[in-house]
Amino acid sequence: MKKFLKDWKSFEIALLLISVIAICVSTIICKSGILTCVTSLAGVLCALLQAKGKIISQWIGLAEVMLYSILSYQNNYYGEVIIYVLVVFPMYLYGVISWITHKNEETDTVNSNQIAKQEWIMLSFGSIFGFVGLYYVLKYFDTSQLIVSSLSMVTSLLATYLIVRRSKFSFLFYVANDIILVILWGIPILQGDFSLMPILIEPVILLINDSYGWKNWNENVI
After folding, report:
1. Could you tell me which of 218, 222, 219, 202 has the C-alpha nearest to residue 48?
2. What DSSP string describes 67-98?
3. If you count DSSP H runs as helices and E runs as strands, how many of each does the chain have, helices first?
4. N or C, where is the chain less crowded by C-beta within 10 Å?
5. Largest distance between two CA atoms of the chain
6. Which helix or strand (DSSP H or E) is residue 110 part of?
């Protein structure tokens, strides 16, 4: 553990500890399942390591995608299951290769990448068509919170694509996705399903982390 945290700043360690405590305490109080707790912890740890540009974050991301897919299926977010299994998981697999092959040996972090203007244009059009397509796919599977779930998928896919491409702008889309996820998982909690509280705490914590990730990649990731 000491070796793992050797290059962590005080703020990063504090955020990690607060995250773990908040998720574990809410799991106990709200009598949440182990899957909900572990999924939340994996998501937070992955995001913290991504903010630091650590290669291992992509491996943890793979695990978190699988866990989140199972949890989404249990809560009738079928569209999220399909997209995460068929799109996000392969993207993370590619991300493992991309990050490993663009590793800074001195700092054990990934080297950042600049996205070309043409690629941004393609992403913009892809996002519009993607939202429309996802909306009808999710509608077909009778997905809960249709519009919010569609927005969640689009921002998540954009953020994942950009983090795989090693772009600092991924964190801006992660921030947008965090806000949408608070709404997505907050709705069933407001309707009385308090066992999902840990999965709601996760995007709140990630909102802080991803804002920090944007700052850190601008200042420290080359």
Report:
1. 202
2. HHHHHHHHTT-HHHHHHIIIIIHHHHHHHHHH
3. 9, 2
4. N
5. 50
6. strand 109-110
SS3 content of the chain, % helix, strand, coil (to 5): 75, 0, 20
Taking CA atoms, 21 is separated from 15, 132, 211, in Å, by 10, 39, 21
Mean pLDDT, consecutive 10-residue stretches, the chain (222 aa), reads 70 90 87 86 90 89 90 79 85 88 82 92 93 87 83 89 92 94 86 80 87 88 62
What pLDDT shows up at residue 200?
A: 81
pTM equals 0.84
Per residue in 67-101, pLDDT (tens digit) is: 989 988 887 777 678 878 888 899 888 888 988 99
Half-sphere exposure of 139 (CA within 13 A, CB side): 7
The residue ranges of every structural domain in the chain are 11-219
In the three-class reduction of DSSP (H, G, I as helix; E, B as strand; rest coil), residue 6 is classed as coil
